[in-house]
Design brief:
The structure is a single chain. By secondary structure, this protein is mainly β. The protein has a single domain, classed as YVTN repeat-like/Quinoprotein amine dehydrogenase (Methylamine Dehydrogenase, Chain H), CATH 2.130.10. It has 3 helices and 32 strands. The strands form 8 sheets. Strands 1, 2, 6, 28, 29 and 30 form a 6-stranded mixed β-sheet that branches.
Length: 463
């Protein structure tokens, strides 16, 4: 009786490929700050990269098509007075980004349609509430204008960005530094990894710990924990012997892991990136030169190793493109933006297929940009899963959404921009042009010209 040796999977042959040099972003001074964040955030329109800046903190925001060498005087987002530690694009508005900094503040920025033409130092709203540096910012996956921030003061604050208020403060749950925070699929729960070696599942609106696991990974180095689509929790960390580990847990009962795997003895923190549509997890180690990817299933060993993409250069950080920003015609299932010391290099993950037709099995309906809830509904206790869209014809955004903050002296006191002044002049000009013209006698020098033109005007009026 023959036994099947190789497990069948449509992702077994996924391969990564770095783009050509002319499609990279060159001459970028990537931040050297000692913090284990990804330093890069991507959406279908822009790539944002935290950079070295004198006299404060700054990050670049580049349109995706602006590849090649980036000029040293290219405008930056530069409103923080301390180094920027984390950035995150709003999932419901491709022009809004949040940043956390060593200056203890969180700032929310509105990026112009075509990118920056001048340095941007005036945020839409400043969120102040942390007493130490803010190392994590994360938008709610399904509710509009709900933002989470975690600081080195060991507290988590959940903000209503539309009003600029701190609505929920989780301050007594973590006795030490918070390494990572992850929202569940519908945003009803949080999963955190802390320096005290505990992984916690928290209901933020009830301010209650639902489940927790002590010594999820016994090593002293930082852990990461993320929610999966089915509610399970995926963690990365270190063993007592400093070997890198990954583990899978049930969120309702964390006494024993579903599985634990040891990987290698490198000391770089593993940053997990998860695709809920395909159940594939990509692990990018800081300081590594490789990306490993695994498929998570319901059959043992539950976390199946697929392959590894390797390059020569180590990575300083990594950005992960949302599914609606991928090229479905090339069977692209993931795209990473790898940060080198002076460069950002896109890496494309594809599944080889001969057919030119749309591959339904690779692209199930995915989370779109429309929020399922308003902020007030979520804070009142309502939940909603992501609103799904089809990628069959490629996703094209049709709405231009502006972030509106209802807060005194934030937007009302701003002077009108040049663009608004120009549009006002154009409107007045069009109103003036629509009024009936008055015949001016001064334009006709001779009586003959006057008579000819007056008779023409009378004829046209009679018609």
């Amino acid at each position: 009786m023959l036994r099947r040796v190789v497990r069948q999977s449509k992702f077994r042959h996924v391969f990564g490929q770095a783009v050509r040099n002319d499609q990279c972003y060159d001459d970028i001074r990537v931040s050297r700050v000692t913090w284990d964040s990804s330093f890069c955030a991507v959406n279908p329109k822009f790539v944002a990269i935290i950079i070295e800046a004198s006299g404060g903190g700054a990050f670049l925001v580049l349109p995706l098509q602006k590849t090649g060498r980036i000029d040293k005087v290219y405008p930056t987002v530069c409103g923080h007075t301390g180094p920027v530690l984390d950035i995150d694009w709003c999932p419901h508005n491709d022009h809004v980004i949040a940043s956390g900094s060593e200056d203890c503040t969180v700032m929310v920025w509105q990026i112009p349609e075509n990118g920056l033409e001048t340095p941007l130092s005036d945020p839409v709203v400043v969120l102040e509430g942390h007493s130490k540096r803010v190392g994590i910012v994360s938008w709610h996956p399904t509710a509009r204008n709900v933002l989470l921030s975690a600081g080195c003061d060991n507290q988590i604050i959940i903000w209503n960005v539309g009003t600029g208020e701190a609505m929920i403060n989780l301050e007594d749950m973590h006795p030490d530094v918070i390494f990572s925070v992850s929202w569940s699929r519908n945003g009803s729960l949080l999963c955190t990894a802390c320096k005290d070696k505990k992984v916690r599942v928290i209901d933020p609106r009830k301010k209650k710990i639902v489940a927790e696991k002590d010594k999820a990974h016994e090593g002293a180095r930082p852990m990461r924990a993320i929610f999966l689509a089915d509610g399970n929790i995926f963690t990365t960390g270190f063993s007592r012997m400093s070997e890198r580990q990954l583990a899978l847990w049930k969120s309702d009962n964390m006494d024993e892991p579903i599985c634990v795997q040891e990987m290698d003895t490198s000391n770089g923190v593993l940053l997990p990136f998860y695709d809920p549509d395909t159940n594939v997890v990509y692990l990018c180690g800081k300081g590594d030169s490789s990306i490993r990817y695994f498929e998570i299933t319901d059959e043992a060993p539950f976390v199946h190793y697929l392959s590894t993409f390797s390059t020569k250069e180590p990575q300083r950080g990594m950005g992960y493109m949302p599914k609606r920003g991928l090229d479905v015609n090339k069977c692209e299932i993931a795209r990473f933006y790898k940060l080198h010391e002076r460069k950002c290099e896109p890496i494309i993950m594809t599944v080889p297929r001969k057919s030119d037709l749309f591959q339904d099995d690779l692209y199930p309906d995915t989370a779109g940009p429309d929020p399922a809830l308003e902020a007030e509904e979520w804070f009142a206790g309502k939940n909603g899963g992501p609103i799904l869209i089809s990628l069959k014809d490629g996703y094209v955004s049709t709405k231009n959404r502006d972030l509106k903050v209802v807060k005194t002296n934030v937007l009302e006191t701003k002077p009108a921009t040049k663009a608004e002044n120009i549009s006002t002049v154009q409107k007045l000009a069009s109103q003036h042009a629509s009024q009936p013209s008055v015949v001016s006698v001064e334009r006709w020098k001779t009586p003959a010209q006057y008579c000819i033109n007056m008779s023409y005007c009378l004829c046209s009026r009679s018609k």
